[in-house]
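Please, structure for the following, as tokens.
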Amino acid sequence: MDIDRKFRILATCCAHGHNYTEEDGVFFRAGDSAFNRNVLDAYKREAIKLGANQRQILGIELLIERVEKYKAANPALVKVPDVDEGAEEAIVNRPNED
């Protein structure tokens, strides 16, 4: 089952070489205006609550800084998230299977 239906993902963990796809990952564009400090701060709070180590927390803080810098440097690329009518809508908004 695809968790992320909007994007095809092929991500590789830089440290360990593990691969991830839309079947076990979710993609957020740095230029997505809804993917902002509030979202990342909530992720950081949850990671702390779950006992993530300080290396992970620092990684999240640095990610927040990079995303904010990207948005500031690329305002023309920051946009409200959307799903186009038609083919994209049929893929993204297809009912979940049980």
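The longest strand covers residues 10-12. The chain has a mean pLDDT of 96.
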